[in-house]
Specification:
By secondary structure, the chain is α+β, with helices and mostly antiparallel strands. The protein has a single domain, classed as NADH Oxidase (3-Layer(aba) Sandwich). Helices cover 39% and strands 16% of the residues. The chain is built from 7 helices and 4 strands; from the N terminus they run ααβαβααβαβα. A 4-stranded antiparallel beta sheet has the order 1-2-4-3, sandwiched between helices. α2 packs antiparallel against α5 and α3 packs antiparallel against α6. It is globular. The protein starts with a helix and ends in a 12-residue tail after the last helix. The structure holds flavin mononucleotide. The site of flavin mononucleotide has 12 residues, from β3.
């Protein structure tokens, strides 16, 4: 296994964090990893708000989560990054209008997964959070109306041993060759 394979396979969603803060250099390295992500037309529509203030993180957890999956563990995370998109970038808007593909969401997902992988390399745990009320996140973080918030990312040192690996579908179920449904073959 290469070092990169180890990062891919050892990453887990971490939902129990040690209170120690994420070092500033690590935060910068994580954001630098996002900066080098590819994006449609290189439009780099992603924007990030890094939240480290305890009371603000607790407010996010108390006020901006949704019922059923209330993500209460988020209150203990020492760092939460809100993944945002600036939609008034002309190349991005024209592209999405023509094809109907929301490139800004793809761009943001790639950039934030770069963050996840860099954080993993640095020995930090992460967990994506997608089950939240975007309007409430925007209000708490003073994010302007024209900006979209699509994801939160919790980052910190894991408090416990790594969670068990969650199963993945076998490759045959997700990979087709030449046409939908056809197996790759030998
Ligand atoms: C877009 C997205 C949104 C997610 N939202 C949440 C969430 O709101 N709460 C949560 O606990 N986990 C969330 N997760 C984490 C997934 O549950 C987790 O990645 C999946 O169960 C696989 O487990 P693993 O990451 O440990 O391999 C989210 C993951 C992604 C990619």
């Amino acid at each position: 296994m290469t070092a990169f394979d180890r990062i891919l396979k050892n990453r887990r969603s971490v939902r129990a964090f040690d209170p120690q803060p994420v070092p500033r250099d690590d935060l910068l390295a994580i954001c630098e990893a996002a900066r080098w992500a590819p994006s449609a037309c290189n439009s780099q529509t992603w924007r990030f708000v890094a939240v480290q203030d305890r009371s603000q993180i607790q407010a996010l957890c108390r006020q901006a989560m949704r019922p059923v999956i209330p993500n209460r563990w988020l209150a203990q995370a020492p760092l939460v990054i809100a993944g945002c998109s600036q939609l008034d970038i002309i190349s991005n808007r024209i592209g999405s209008t023509v094809t109907g593909i929301e490139y800004f969401r793809i761009d943001l997902g790639i950039a934030m997964e770069h963050m996840v992988l860099k954080a993993t390399e640095l020995g930090l745990g992460t967990c994506w959070v997608g089950w939240f009320n975007a309007g409430k996140v925007k209000a708490l973080l003073k994010i302007p109306r024209r900006i979209k918030v699509s994801a939160l990312l919790a980052i910190g040192y894991a408090a416990d041993a790594p969670p068990a690996r969650r199963l993945r579908k076998p490759l045959e179920q997700i990979l087709f060759a030449e046409r939908w449904g056809a197996p790759l073959g030998e």
